[in-house]
Amino acid sequence: MPDASAACRWQGDTLVVRLRVQPRASRTAWGELRDRHIKLYLTAPPVDGKANAALTAFLGKEFGVAKSRVELLRGKSGREKVVAIHAPPKIPSVIQEIIRASG
């Protein structure tokens, strides 16, 4: 069973999310909870920071924050990433379900 509490957690008003990103996907969308990560599909290629830029833009839109409030904490050049979303005014339903599952 995947560890939901490791996939996302609150640190004060900041939500920290562990992602496993699949670039060059057919669509940009949330995936399933796997192990300690949430799968995220991005259409952007992993070249010249395009995937990270697409990731930041997608998360900003999903959480209702400016891209500047989405911080890439770990994984700049890898598929496994840890991001912090500072004071998100909305939480996507996928994340709400994971938070609920973690108790």
Number of domains: 1
Shape: globular
Q: Could you tell me the mean pLDDT?
A: 93
- CATH homologous superfamily title: YggU-like
Largest sheet: 6 strands, mixed
Spell out the helices and strands N to C: HEEEEHEEH
Helix- and strand-based class?
alpha+beta
The gyration radius over C-alpha positions equals 13 Å
Instruction: Count every beta strand, where a strand is a DSSP E run of 2 or more residues.
Output: 6
Termini separation: 15 Å
The CATH architecture: 2-Layer Sandwich
Helix content: 25-40%
Give the low-pLDDT segments: none
Indicate the proportion of strand residues. 25-35%
Kindly identify the CATH topology.
Conserved Hypothetical Protein Mth637, Chain: A
The CATH first-level class comes to: Alpha Beta
Question: Which oligomeric state applies?
Answer: single chain
Total of helices: 3
In short:
This protein is an alpha+beta fold and 103 residues long. The chain has helices at residues 4-7, 50-63, 93-101, and strands at residues 8-11, 14-22, 29-34, 37-41, 70-74, 80-86.
